[in-house]
Amino acid sequence: MLLDDNTRGPNLVRLRSFCKKIIRKFFDQATDNPLLFIEVFFWKNILKVEDLALPQSLEARRARAEERETMRLDAIEPEVFSDASDDDNLDW
Amino acid sequence: MVIKEITHALYEAVHNNDADEGSDKPYKLAREIFYDAENIDLHVKLIKLYLPYRNTPQHLVNLVHCVHYSMKILNTLAPNGQLVVLGKRRKKVVRKKNPYNPDWLVEDELGEEINGENEGLLRLEEKVGNNAADDREDDIVDSDLKQGQETELAQEDVHGAELGKESEGNTLPLDAEAESVLVASSTEAKIESERNSSEEKEEENKEREITEAKSEEVTEELDFDLTIENQEKKSEVSGNEVKSKDSSEEVLNEEEGEENSSKKKKKKKKKSNLSEADLALMQLQEEDDDMDDGYTQNERWFNVNNYVLPFAHQTVIQNLSQLLARYDRNSAETTAFIVHIFDALAFEKKLHPLFYQLSLFQVFETVRFFTFIHIYFNHLIFKCFNYSFILLYTF
């Protein structure tokens, strides 16, 4: 497509520009994250695409998951250590 | 093909209508078509169902045209970007009322139920008071009947003795005897009448008892299918019936009322076991059940820019890229429309990593392109070095 000179015409200029934009973005990101060269072999889910496009979203999601786990553990702990918690509550 | 032409015609009608300021019919038609969320997602579903060697490429081309025109129509319909749309239809699940499952018994809030039960209890107390007064009357009647029966028995013996005397003797009765016979006959008539009346009453009572027993059985069966309110109504109805009937039935109805109260208590216990979350769920289910046509209908806001989001799927991009690869055989419109969709996905929605795919790079011929550039630059550098060396040697 990019090698073809017929794409240089006015009808297919947008197609050519789109291809160039995508490739430029890919190589810009691949310099920071070389694992993208392996990601090329697989079809991606929309969630994975969001993670690749915005690495901040991935970090935020991880933070949210950690918060959820801590909340869950806090909820479970008094049930598990019910005998110990009674003694602790007496100190209050 | 037909869908493509219809959408194209609709798009042209809507745009020309804006220019001419004519009737709002095409606008309304478009609004009705895109009011349903299922119609908006129809094109994506059809593109997903496209099979490369089963369907013709023209079919996919038509679908792409439809998508492009529908995007434009949506933009004209909602210049602000927001459109009110009917939510996706969800088939209502009809739940059978299981008599052994107490969950469906909870219909109203707890406060109302308690008030209702209190009312029922008050009614029961009133009934008990009325029945107590009726019971006294019953006792009086029973005592009269008993006295009558006792006198009857005593007089029967006398009468039987007299009859025996008559049958034995076949003699004319004496004056004293005649008097006694007359008295006996008079008493006999009275007793017979009384007996008949008492027998009739007893028979009637027996019949009513049987019918009531049957009705109780029926009500016990039906109670599983009825709510508490209905039960209260039934108790009211039964109370009204009781007043019309004899006093002997009211005693039985008292028992019924007691049974009802015991059932209510049992139900109350069951309700107390249910949590508040279950109650909320039940309320939601009731709200869902109130909807008509067997479907739930929910209007919601639809962002027109999110129309492209369902296209961010593996099969859709695969099919469209295969169509894009044969750009030399397609018309300029189709390639432009496909690029329009891809542009919206990659740069408006910032999903450009979706296109980091080796098969797509092969379509773009980037590998060959970059190898070509690489060789070209190497050649240039080599040439430059050569020239530099030549220059160095020269100077």
Can you describe this structure?
The complex is a heterodimer of chains A (92) and B (395). With 92 residues, chain A is an all-alpha fold. Chain A folds into two domains: 1-42, no CATH class; 45-92. Chain A has five helices and no strands. In chain A, helix 4 (55-80) packs across helix 5. Chain A is elongated. The mean pLDDT of chain A is 78. In chain B, helix 5 packs across helix 12, helix 6 packs antiparallel against helix 9 and helix 11 packs antiparallel against helix 12 (332-348). Chain B has helices at residues 2-20, 25-33, 37-40, 42-48, 57-77, 110-169, 175-223, 228-244, 247-273, 276-290, 314-325, 332-348, 358-364, 366-394; strands at 82-86, 90-91, 295-296, 299-303. Chain B has 395 residues and is mainly alpha-helical. In chain B, the strands form two sheets. In chain B, strands 1-4 form a two-stranded antiparallel sheet. A two-stranded antiparallel sheet of chain B has the order 2-3. Chain B has three domains: 2-89 and 299-358, no CATH class; 107-273; 365-395. At the A-B interface, helix 1 and helix 3 of A face helix 12, helix 13 and helix 14 of B.
Distance between the termini of chain B: 73 Å
Low-confidence stretches of chain A: none
Percentage of helical residues of chain A?
over 70%
Beta-strand share of residues of chain B: under 5%
**How confident is the prediction overall: mean pLDDT of chain A?**
78
Class from helix and strand fractions of chain B:
mainly alpha
Main structural class of chain A: mainly alpha
Please give the most extensive interface between any two protein chains, plus how many residues each contributes: A-B, 31 and 32 residues
**What is the succession of H and E elements of chain A?**
HHHHH
**What's the rounded overall pLDDT mean of chain B?**
67
Any idea what the radius of gyration of chain A is? 26 Å
Gyration radius of chain B, in Å: 47 Å
Query: What shape does the CA trace of chain B take?
Result: elongated
> What percentage of amino acids of chain A are in beta strands?
under 5%
Largest sheet of chain A: none
The ordered H/E elements of chain B are HHHHHEEHHHHHEEHHHH
Looking at how many chains there are and whether they match, the oligomeric state comes to heterodimer
Number of domains of chain B: 3
> Are there runs of chain B of 5+ residues with pLDDT below 50, and where?
107-117, 163-174, 224-228, 241-245
